[in-house]
Automatic annotation (TrEMBL), chain A:
This is Putative circularly permuted ATP-grasp superfamily protein. Pfam families: CP_ATPgrasp_2. Residues 86-462 form the Circularly permuted ATP-grasp type domain. Residues 469-527 are annotated as: Disordered. It comes from the Bacteria. Residues 503-512 have a biased composition (Polar residues). SUPFAM superfamilies: Glutathione synthetase ATP-binding domain-like. It comes from Kribbella kalugense.
Automatic annotation (TrEMBL), chain B:
Residues 168-235 form the Transglutaminase-like domain. It comes from the Bacteria. One of its GO terms (biological process) is proteolysis. This is Transglutaminase-like putative cysteine protease. Gene3D superfamilies: 3.10.620.30. It holds the Pfam family Transglut_core. It comes from Kribbella kalugense.
Amino acid sequence: MSRSSSRPLFDGYLDPRRPHAQAYDEMFDPVDGVRTAYKRLHDSLTPLQPADLTTRAEALDRALVDQGITFSLSGEERPFPLDLVPRVITAAEWSRLERGVVQRVRALEAFLADIYGEQQIVADGVLPRRLITSCEHFHRQAAGIAPPNGVRIHVAGIDVVRDEQGDFRVLEDNLRSPSGVSYVMENRRTMARVFPDLFAKHRVRAVGDYAVHLLRSLRAAAPASVTDPNVVVLTPGVYNSAYFEHSLLARQMGVELVEGRDLLARNNVIYLRTTEGDQRVDVIYRRIDDEFLDPVHFDPDSVLGVAGLVNAARAGNVVIANAIGNGVGDDKLIYTYLPEILKYYLGETPLLPNVDTYRCWLPAEQTEVLDRLDELVTKPVEGSGGYGIVFGPDASPKELQAQRRRIKANPRGWIAQPVVQLSTVPTKVGERLQPRHVDLRPFAVNDGDDVFVLPGGLTRVAIPEGSLIVNSSQGGGSKDTWVLAPRASGEDAELRGPGLGTSVRSDSTSTPERGPELNVAQQQQQQ
Amino acid sequence: MKWRLRVVHTTGYRYATAVTQSYNEARLTPRHDDRQNLMVARLESVPATRAYKYTDYWGTEVNSFDLHVPHTELKVIAASVVETTDQPEPSVAATWSQLRSPEVLDAYAEYLEWTDYVPKHRELAAVARSLRKGRTPEDTVLAVSKWVHDKLKYQRGTTGVHSSAVDAWQAGEGVCQDYAHLTLAMLRAVDIPARYVSGYLHTKPDAEVGETVVGESHAWVEAWTGQWWGFDPTNDISIGHRHVWVATGRDYGDVSPLKGIYSGGAATAIEVTVDMTRLA
């Protein structure tokens, strides 16, 4: 990159002394220069002067604040930083990734159905029983609940990264309440407003119709006897960091956004209290964790959920989406058995490989992990948001010692992975573009017949130089993710027609009413 | 010995102010196995409601019901007729090394883990290890049960529904729930898979046919030493025709006979009565 004077933005971009220089850069091949996918984008960016970049970035920030897109970081609301350079994925790359995600969702659906049913995979000796029973999110309360159309993973967020060769690998599965899709849609809306010229030069596949697919999946999940299902979005409330997303999805689907106290269970049927009387609810797209969903079966002190909801689902009168207990499918120890799970249920080998992972609960692998703690990344098997992760190379001897104790005390609770040098994409840092590490969370929606994968997904970018931690809860940013349409396809491209950012409005005029709080548990001692 | 027994279990709550909503689950229906034959079972509540039945993860029949009429008392009556026999002597005896085999550890993992009611405790484990010395797994179960029976004094009011094995052991007093939890804590400490059993005990060994006696809502344990078999540490007796079992689980939390959520004032448990009549 010595021709710096003609391309001030990329000055010193591929500095060989940069941290993690082995990482795959998605725009530049170290030998052949700009990769095909990024040619047009690169050509559009190159003539820009640093001042232009700043002007555009400011326009982007203003647009984001106008749209009210913020996220909460340690209790403080901030605009979610959207980088102005989009990330580009070619049609061929996407097609492979999409097939891999679909395969994974299908296998995990079969796995969850089995685990909360007959547990044949355990009976056949393919997985140890203890692997399942020791999983924190294996919820015995969900045993025997069979959703009408068999779907438990209505929405999945499969986190992938590109390794040093540029190959996509799955880092983790999110099958509970994966969030972030609102950023995908809002980022696109913002980018289209601020950079219409870029979209004119690319055939970028649209993401604005996500809610249509989600609503289709939720309606398809309803009990078979219901002809026009009543779907609601259940949120923990305005203080939840993803409340913006909950309200956006409810608005776009044209359904009620409700809290637990707006709902009532009576004889195993769920009703929405309104000023016009109780309305029966058939499908609940819930964004509340299992543990708070129903005080009868989970935390008796929780007021976020609906007493009686679990048994209403068991009786087949309401569908909870995503299903209760999906966390057993995204446990990071169970993740390491995905090849076995895929083979057992689908007879297939993974289209998307995992990241190599050591299992601390196997004594031999634990020994290796403890020996190499300073070069590995250790992660808790459950949880997300980057909490609890220890980067061996960055940790002090004291931190490593503490981590060693934690692993020995609870080997089931930890896995370890080599440091994956996540791929990099040009990102605005100061007045120039710098390589910054990214991951990708594609969103898959299962309606029982097809698994739809929203083209693209949420690209998260680690802003500090050399950082490999991309979580928004750790101060990361995001990028608009462009999946290019195949050359001769009829796929809808952004800004080629109507529909961008439009939404269906709820026509309901009723307002929710609230019932009494149910929060007192009663139990008797056996004498 | 083979008995036919009618069990009428009345339980419930009285509330300080009227309750307008309540959601409950009752685990009160006796089970069916080669020692026990359930002939009929019925559940009623006052105020009346329609119960929804399902079988939970542990195989227990659950009656779930909700109430939406204001009430100051909830009464639940579970009535059943069961035929019972004595538990046969365990016919398969596993060795200590069999108990520690990976297959057994995996298959019975849930019954070897620590829970809030059955926590890991160093001193209790040391006692359990000393009782194990020179004994087979089966004899160890009996020795531990005897130790618990001798160590605890049966006394109501000292412990409560949330007391753990260690709480009871430190208090030196407890009720059958505590005897069971303490026995489980010690058996698990020496790698014997062990589970909590909820049920009833007929209190009169020489009862006449047609005689109704005051029975007990009871709890005991089952251990796996090559096969599952039960023992009653509260009374230091084998499981026989006077025992009627309802549910098994890792601890009380999995088999709670009646639990629920309600809105309203403070609740007190009404007097629990268990009437047991020998029919044959």
